[in-house]
Task: structure prediction
Amino acid sequence: MAHLSPSAIFSPSVARLQQAAAKDWNYIDAWLSTKFAGKNPPPYERNHDILKALLALAALNDTADEERDLIARVEARALEDLQAKEDADSHTELLHSLEDNLTKVGQTSLDTLAAMSVVLNQPVPTIERLGRGIVDLQVTAYDLEQVSERVSVLEAHLMNELDNINALIKDLQSDEYQPSSDLMKQTIDYQRRAKALSAKLPEQRDRMGSTATGSGPSKITIQDVKLEEDKFKAMMETVKDLEAKVKSYHGLPQDVDLARLELEGLRLELRGLTLQRDSMFEGLVERESPKKTRS
Result:
């Protein structure tokens, strides 16, 4: 009970939490002791957040240790199987004898073939597969060279653009682009003028509103335009009729009385011509009509 706080004596839940925390700290202390080979770890603050982080770290470390041990056991088992298979192979001594009796050139060729098989990931290589793998490697190398050249060209363009940007920055930092000495004065002047215009804005709005109200709404629609167009066409027809009547009086004197006398004379002449036409028509009819014979 020495590790419990006074409040834990009167609260079972607090006591359980403190016991669990003490158990976790004991586990962390033991784990750190194994990691530091029995030496004391550096001093650190002991609180709930650090305990939580250390527990997570210890769990991850244990998982990694288990995975590493599992991989080591699998590799050891595979090595044992390969060793047992090699010991059981009847041709092992023959292969060792051939390898020992190879010339220097043959040993170099065999090492090269083995290294090539490892690089090309071909445990059981053949000449055809090795050749195909070499061709694939050459194609890959060529593609990488092309990509490298493109990257070099792109890098050159980027460096050129970087130089241009640096030159532009240098120009912008020159005296030509520096603000004028009276910039503060101009700013204050602009602010004062803006405030004055803002103060006059409501008055101008009221004036515009009163002007719009006095003039009244003037909305022109398509129907109004059509109606005015029809009126205009009617007026044009009237003008044409009047022009025709005026042309009929062309040649008359400007004096009204004289014009009336001339008009009466023309009417008498027209009447005489009409009578002459009628008499001529009657004479023509009598001449062309057959005469009756007397019995």
Q: What stands out?
A: The first helix runs from residue 6 to 9. The chain has nine helices and no strands. The chain has a mean pLDDT of 81. The CA atoms of residues 6 and 94 lie 81 Å apart.
